[in-house]
Amino acid sequence: LIGMCQPLGEPKLVGEFARRGLSIFALELLPRITRAQSMDVLSSMATVAGYRAVILAAAHLPKMFPMLMTAAGTISAAKVFVIGAGVAGLQAIATAKRLGAVVSAYDIRPAVKEQILSLGAKFVEMELDTSQAEAAGGYARAMDEDFYRKQRQLMAKVAAENDVVICTAAVPGKRAPLLLSAEAVRGMAPGSVIVDLAAESGGNCELSKPDQTVLDSGVTIIAPTNPASEAPFHASQMYSRNVSTFLLALVRNGQFSPDMDDQIVRETLVAREGQVVHPRIRELLDGSG
Q1: 19, 37, 259, 286: which one is catalytic?
Q2: Which of the residues 6, 23, 98, 139 is marked catalytic?
Q3: Composition of the chain by helix, strand, coil, percent to 5
Q4: pLDDT for 198 beyond 60
Q5: Known catalytic residue: 282?
Q6: Catalytic site residue 40?
Q7: Which among 19, 32, 149, 252 is annotated as catalytic?
Q8: Start-end ranges of CATH 3.40.50.720 in the chain?
Q9: CATH code assigned to 2-41+235-287
Q10: Which residue in 6, 23, 35, 43 is the catalytic one?
Q11: Which CATH superfamily is domain 42-230 in?
Q12: Is residue 245 predicted with pLDDT exceeding 70?
C-alpha cells in the first residue's frame, strides 16, 4: 500500500493494517531532502489548499481584494493575514497578493521571514521566544500552553486589523495549535472571513467546525478538511506524479525491489510482513497502550 495514511495521527490504524499482512509506505513521512521533492505529496496538496483558501475567502468577503481607482472614488484593498508560512501559507500569501490584497503573515519559525518578505508580504513580529520553535526537517515544533496563551493575545490584535485570516499552522502528528480564540473572532469587524486549513487536526480557530461554515458575530469561519479536492484536476495531476515518481524509486531492473538502505524507503516504510517497522510509529503504539 502506497499513499497517505496519517501514520502519526492514526498509529493504531497502521497497526491494524500491519496485522492483516499489508506492507505500507506512508508518503507523509518522506524525508525533506532534494531527491524526495518530486515525491512530496504534502507539499502538492498544501499548494492547492493555500490557493483554494484564498479563493474561498474572496468569495465570502463582502469586499473586493484589490485597490481600485474608480469614478466613484478609491476602493481600499482588502487586508489579509496568513498564519503559518509552510507551503500552504506561502501559496496563500502569493495568491492573495495576485488578487491585489495587502498581505501580512506570521510564523513561529524566524527562518521563514525572508520567504514571506520575498512574496511581497509584511512579516508580523511578536514578542515571543521562538528559539526552540523549529523541529527537524523544518517543521514547526509544538510549544507549551503558556507560549500559546501569549501568542493568542497578540494574535487577536493583529486579526482585528484584517478583513481575512487564513490559518495554516500545524504540527505533524499532534493537534493543531489553538491560535484564534472566540474572543479574537468577535473582535474582528463584521463581514470578516476566517479560513481554517488546520480543521482536520483540530483547527487553529476555537470556533471552527470541520467541513462547516459558521457565522459568529458577523464573522464567517470556513473550515474545510480536504480543500485540495476542490481543485481535483490539478490536485490529482500532482498527486499522481508524486506517487509514480516514488514508485519508480522502488523498482530495480524492472522488479519491485525496495532498497532498505535508501533513506526514502527507510523513512516511509511503516509496516512490512505483518509488523510495524517504523521506530516512531512503534513508539506511538507502545505509548497508546
Answers
A1: 37
A2: 139
A3: 45, 20, 40
A4: yes
A5: no
A6: yes
A7: 32
A8: 2-41+235-287, 42-230
A9: 3.40.50.720
A10: 43
A11: NAD(P)-binding Rossmann-like Domain (3.40.50.720)
A12: yes
